[in-house]
Queue: 3 jobs
Job 1
Amino acid sequence: MKKHIKNNVYWVGKNHWDLREFHGSEYTTTKGSSYNSYLILEEKIGLIDTVYEPFSTEFIKNLATEIDLKTIDFIVVNHAEPDHSGALEALLDLIPGTPVYCTENGIKSLTGLYHKKDWNLVPVKTGDRISVGNGKELVFIQAAMIHWPDSMFCFLTQDNVLFSNDAFGQHYCSELLFNDLVDQGELWTETIKYYANIITPFSHLVNRKIEEIKSLGLEVECICTSHGIVWRKDPAQVIEKYLEYANGYQENQITVIYDTMYEGTAMMANQFVKGITMEDPLVNVKLFSASHTNISDLVTEIFKSKAILLGSPTVHNGVLYTIAGLLEFVNGLKFKNKKAATFGTYGWRDLSSKVIQKSLQEAGFEIVMEPISANWRPDEQLQERCVEYGKTFARSVS
Ligand code: FEO
């Protein structure tokens, strides 16, 4: 069943309520997600993106109840990632030769993914326009690396609807569809998690892209994302929020993350929390075990933090794999404006805190204190030192 968005624009996507993981097992989707596809029913009929391949049969069946598929004049592939292009192959089998507008990089991605030489792929670039009839046009805007090199947005004139694909989305499922109707806490929790995990490495491009949209004089009244809700009420709020996220975002939060083998590293972490809270009762200090918290949630907490303390026991001349995995992920995200210090326990070689420090430095964190470590398990004296360490850390990042 199609859902009305605005004038002759409709949602024809798929809500994936029971999705619990995305990008393999990298990203938890505790509230599901959606693959948003949109139908433009002007003098010309256009389809913007499709859905994930496992739902292609259902998608095409539903679409065929809304329109005669043979009346589709064109398809836009804003982004070739299979969560959006997955139904393209089955659809084009039914309507071969239909023009598919995408970027040059989109042609490379679609060809690499589907190996079809007979698809009518039409390259477009920023500023190109096609008429959809009734005096309206679709304007294309390349958005490379938000989230793949092929990504683009398109804008429907007169209705002032921006089809932003991955940008401004959430892995969030709601039949209510619109931003003003859903639970605002859930919406913003999922919006920041999505930005932290997916968009952060491209923050410098976000600034540039938003400026470009402004310079094109496009007055955005509605943003149709490819995941989650449609921003119909005050869409500028999410654009402004993205500008905040893209420019060294931080809240008054300190996050302590550890993994532990025999509770020694956990004991240190708890003492840091005590010291930080004694020094600064207003800072939002949070404590997480890396082995009991999904990595995408840890990344979100780091994104919100002004500073982190990260620790592990020394194992095999390095750190526990949960911390190693987190460091690898964080290194790819290129966070800005973050401070850190590191800690660890060891039996015979004191390495872990130094390994973590080196990795965080390479990831762009500013190290504000020398590492602290405990031989075997911290005694009362060292635990007291950890409290003092927490106090000094809180002062040094305030
Ligand atoms: Fe939702 Fe980059 O695909």
Job 2
Amino acid sequence: MSTPVEQLLIPEVATPHLPEGYTILALETSCDETAAALVRDGRTLVANVVASQLDTHRRYGGVVPEVASRQHILSLTPVLEETLARLPHGWADVHAVAATYGPGLSGALLTGLNAAKAIAWQRGVPFIGVNHLEGHIYANWINPDSDAALPAEPCFPLLALVISGGHTLLVLMRGHGEYQVLGQTRDDAVGEAFDKVARILGLGYPGGPAIQQAAAKVQTSTALPRSWLRDTYDFSFSGLKTAVLHKVQEVQKQQQRLDARPRRGRRSGEVGDVEPAPPAPEQLPEQYVAQMAHAFQESVVDVLVAKAVDAAHRYGAHEILLAGGVAANTRLRSELERRARVSVRYPPIWLCTDNAAMIAAAAYYRFDAGRQPDWSLDVRPNLPLR
Ligand code: KG4
Ligand code: ZN
């Protein structure tokens, strides 16, 4: 009888007893950041290196999966070297290795997962696979500065609003690693909506920070509709995005009509009178763009905050936390703090967007709970949070 290939290739590494305050090396390559980090005792940040591919993808207006995978392969070694340089004894100080195995782009995930498994196998240390969304949540308990006091322990049950470029989830956590998804988006993720609306307004990629910056230029704007989806904690953002698109198209048509007015001394329809093309989004008036960005952001923030506050109250959550790239939005943070009836927490801005420190932090709690995956773990591009 033949032996399955996996059994031939996958080594038997006994789970060692890890020393007190052990250090985890983590890799994160689920999308367009090649990241490595070292975290001690699950909370203290030792090193955090992120090689962003933003400049590569910006010219395409979004992430190109194949380009992302290739770039991860190129960046992994230098990023790892820079990370390891922070440890006095290098590899000898690494007690476990973790990597994101989903959700994300499959080719991109593969690069980090395979690298992490290879390192763990070669070093004879445990390998831990982590859910990217779980990582975003665990960014909230990382101490970014070893001289500062540790952030308070999580106060369960808590409500987590996980908002990124690919996900929008309202999650109830009753303990470490225990997730009950109360609601999620039915169409666009909230970060995706920010990115698409930014493109409509000619603000470039990534859209979230650009919209926030444009919105800050005005105090008020005409309200856009709110997508409440009554009696559910689900969300929908694509209608709002379409509302922005229609309004912008109206303005572009008006601009086009103005440009088409017959010039002095010429009559409309005269030979040589060419119909002007609609103006590019980049040619929209700055004040108008700022007002649309403001109105869009207000609409999104209003719905996110209202649902989070309501769910926290209904489920008796002791705190609300923000996680994911959109958690970097300062308007969302302040509005949630103003309306929430329990305490609110969010990671520092640089730990909101993709990084590997959050993966190391989540790995620590997984390992502690004995949830160590086997070596045949494969990438899961649509991995749910549970
Ligand atoms: O978590 P993340 O880095 O990657 C994913 O896991 O998707 O999130 C990226 C998303 C992008 O859509 C980006 O536009 C959004 O986070 N984002 C923001 C802000 N900073 C980043 N959205 C709103 N306001 C921000 N300040
Ligand atoms: Zn992310």
Job 3
Amino acid sequence: MSNEQRTIVVANWKCNPTSLEQAEALFNSIKKRVGDSKKVEVVICPPFVWLPFLMRASASAKSFGGLAFGSQNCFWEQFGPFTGEISPQILKNLGCEYVILGHSERRQYLGETDEIIAKKLKASLKAGLKPIFCIGETEKQRKQKKTKQILKKQLDVLGKIQNLKSNIKNLNIAYEPIWAISTANGMAARPDDAKQAKILIEEILYKELSTQRPTVRGIKILYGGSADSGNAKEYIEAGFDGLLVGGASLNAKEFIKIVKSLDKI
Ligand code: PGA
């Protein structure tokens, strides 16, 4: 099975774990059990600082023991006087393949705007990274039936990216309804509802935006928001190309269960 056909399962560790020992233990447990997955591409996105340690601990510099690595953010320039920033080129040179961009937590707590996200998308594609571009509506917006409008606004940033067409295969979109992220009671979106949102995203991408860019077909669309081993399969069966997993990716047993459940489909 080629990489393009495999289901993607992304582990978004967010600001966890707080020690290298814990990060290595979590990574090693995951790698041992799902590093050889045939149908699933597992992407580990730890905090920046753990990345080189985990990469070094992996089998070969090329394959990282069957897993891919991603970062949870990056800057919009490749190098220069930008104190505290990590550029897409640094990540690429380190061996990262993916980068999560536009996550709702960064939009909410770090003030990331659509404009900033557009610049980061552009720079990441230029460096050869595969962005996982997060979009999604709040509970209030959903209740007001503004989901399509919000998704459209968020997706509109793609129109600002001149190098999109030549890199379209590298783009992944994660539909993450904000009301379903990190819920204490595991309140994920119902697969049927998520599927409706995926249809809206495709409509926006393929009908409204494709007038300028007929090549947008081929973008992978993932689901994220309280995904776990109990519901993972349902999202893939509903048509999603993969999952962005937060909380459940910090529990090796649970995360392995998710990957295994998709390896059987
Ligand atoms: P969650 O997080 O799985 O804990 O809801 C998903 C995400 O924010 O990417």
